[in-house]
Design a protein that fits this description.
Helix content is 50%, strand content 26%. It has two helices and five strands, in the order H-H-E-E-E-E-E. Strands 1-2-5 form a three-stranded antiparallel sheet, with helices on one face. It has a two-stranded antiparallel sheet with strand order 3-4. Helix 1 runs antiparallel to helix 2. The longest helix has 41 residues. The radius of gyration is 19 Å and the shape is elongated.
Length: 111
């Protein structure tokens, strides 16, 4: 009788953790896709690094990701753009906080 209850409790814990962690990974993946697409589009345009940085931060905020301008590095030089992002998202799991670290980056060249 104890084994099914224990199994159900463990399954419930995994489902709760998954329900809290999956959305963070999903939004972080959307941000990584955005910076990749942004770099490909902007490689030939040679935009201002400050403008790109501000737009990446604004996009992340729209995804509810805690990203500040200091966590976004953008360099642009003669047809090459590099966007590097590093941030941590704390996930509250009731008994502890799990800090998920993300470091998406991309370098794109205009041909």
């Amino acid at each position: 009788m104890l084994k099914p209850i224990l199994g159900l409790a463990i399954l419930t814990v995994f489902l709760v953790i998954g329900a809290r962690v999956f959305p963070v990974y999903s939004r972080s993946s959307q941000l990584a896709d955005y910076i990749r697409d942004r770099a490909v589009r902007d490689a030939a345009a040679n935009p201002s690094p400050r403008d790109v940085q501000a737009e990446v931060v604004e996009y992340a905020r729209g995804l509810s990701l805690p990203l500040s301008p200091e966590q976004v590095s953008v360099t642009s030089d003669s047809g090459t753009i590099s966007i590097k992002v590093g941030y941590t998202v704390p996930v509250d799991l009731a008994v502890t906080t799990w800090n998920l670290h993300f470091t998406p980056s991309v370098v794109s060249r205009a041909y």
